[in-house]
Amino acid sequence: MFNKLVIKLCYKIPFFAKFFLKGRGFVFMLHRVLPQEKRGFDWNKSLAISPESLEEWIKFFRKKGFDIVSMDEVCQRIKTKKGKKFIAFTMDDGYKDNLYNGLPIFKKLNVPCTIYVSNCFPNNHAVYWWYFLEDYIKKNNTIDLKEIGITYKKTFSDSEKFIAYNEVRELLRKSDYGTQLNFALKICKIKDLKQMNRSFNLTWDEVKRLSEDPLITIGGHTIHHISLKNQSNAVCKHEINKGTQELKDKIGETIKHFAYPYGSKDDYSIDLIELLEKNNYKSAVINHPGSILSNSREALYSIPRMGLTDETSIGKINDLFSGRVHLNFNGVSKEYI
Predict the structure, then answer these.
(1) Does residue 292 contact residue 299 with C-beta atoms inside 8 Å?
(2) Contact call for residues 241 and 277 (beta carbons, < 8 A)
(3) Is 284 helix (H, G, I), strand (E, B) or coil?
(4) CATH 3.20.20.370 for domain 2-124+201-330
(5) Is 245 helix (H, G, I), strand (E, B) or coil?
(6) Which pLDDT does position 330 carry in this prediction?
(7) Mind listing the pLDDT tens digit for each residue in 74-102?
(8) Which end of the chain has fewer CB atoms at under 10 Å, N or C?
(9) Which of 222, 39, 221 is nearest to 131 (CA)?
(10) Of 9, 23, 8, 4, nearest to 329 (Cα)?
């Protein structure tokens, strides 16, 4: 009784709390593996890591004594609370550079990775609205979204552009696929979306090729890469049920792991767990940093992830490992859902 009281007291004091929040493992989120000179975007630079940085981080984690494991193994270690401290690598969406720039690094260093594929990528109807928005805001000083059904009109100075970008980003992130597509076509006047898809995205043959590599696991990421919490139940069912079945049909494997598109706490909810379980998913990851602390049912469907980029500092990683990042983002809570 006394020991439990002391622990509860320690949780309320930040200096002591971080020692209880180190966790046993951490999952890192990547999107693209691109050389620095091939990026072309500033506000979306966190979506890419260079092959050199990826290799350096893998070596760094191994020197720190971490096992680098698959998401299957992550689930096993969460459930049993057994095994060494661990790290897992994941990649979202389905960019072609995952295969041609990322896989060679993972194979060279014998590192497993889960790639969460949104069906719209290999089906060539992805809408990269986050890239289009950055380009539009940088080239203009006013934006009006009335034409696509969003009440937002603003004029901004050059110094206010990043603020406008973030405001519109939040509106588009919560929108449905049709609205995002209309933003690209009607506001940004994108003419070559299909060609961009063919250039940027994995084909189904390439997804299949990745799935056949023993280091790679293919996961689900919805059909249209939309924020599920902001859609109707019917849309959520369609996005998960149909998206999962198509992935399974294309690669000939059961799809066991899922990533919520965008993945903030505004993009997923506990109501989605039952739907994921019905589709035989064993885990789901989010886009929110923290330590893996709980082994509850909910914990398996809200596994925290932190982005890993060229700009990520060793200090930030050490803060993650120490529990400071968890404390700063989550307080003393062990759950993310």
Answers:
(1) yes
(2) no
(3) strand
(4) yes
(5) helix
(6) 87
(7) 999 999 888 899 999 999 999 999 999 99
(8) N
(9) 39
(10) 23
Q: For residue 230, how many C-alpha atoms fall within 13 Å in the half-sphere facing its CB?
A: 20
Structure tokens at 99: 């295969």
> What is the DSSP pairing of strand 153-155 with strand 142-144?
antiparallel
| Residue 84 DSSP one-character state | S
Q: Per residue in 125-163, pLDDT tens? A: 999 999 999 999 999 999 999 999 999 999 999 999 999
In total, the chain counts a number of residues equal to 337
Contact call for residues 25 and 83 (beta carbons, < 8 A): no
Residue with tokens 């990851």, as numbered in its chain: 285
Residue ranges per structural domain of the chain: 2-124+201-330, 129-187
| CA neighbor of 249 nearest in space, from 117, 94, 102 | 117
The number of CA neighbours under 13 Å toward the Cβ of 63 is 6
Cα(64)–Cα(86) distance, integer angstroms: 10
Distance of CA 209 to the CA centre of its chain: 22
**Among 31, 28, 9, CA closest to 201:** 31
Tokens in use for 256? 């066991």
Q: How far is CA 14 from the centre of its chain?
A: 28
pLDDT of residue 17: 56
Q: What is the b/e burial string over 7-23, where b = at least 16 CB atoms within 10 angstroms of the residue's CB?
A: eeebbeeeeebbebbbb
Q: Which amino acid is at 20?
A: F
**Angle, CA of 293, 289 and 128, to the nearest 5°:** 140
Contact in structure between 195 and 93 (CB atoms under 8 Å) = no
CA dihedral of residues 133, 137, 142, 144 (deg, nearest 10): 0
Residues of the chain with pLDDT under 70: 1-19, 37-40
Looking at residue 331, its pLDDT comes to 82
Those residues whose C-beta lies under 8 Å from the C-beta of residue 267, and which sit 6 or more positions away, are 173, 227, 228, 229, 230, 260, 261, 286, 287
CA gap 240, 257 in Å, rounded: 12
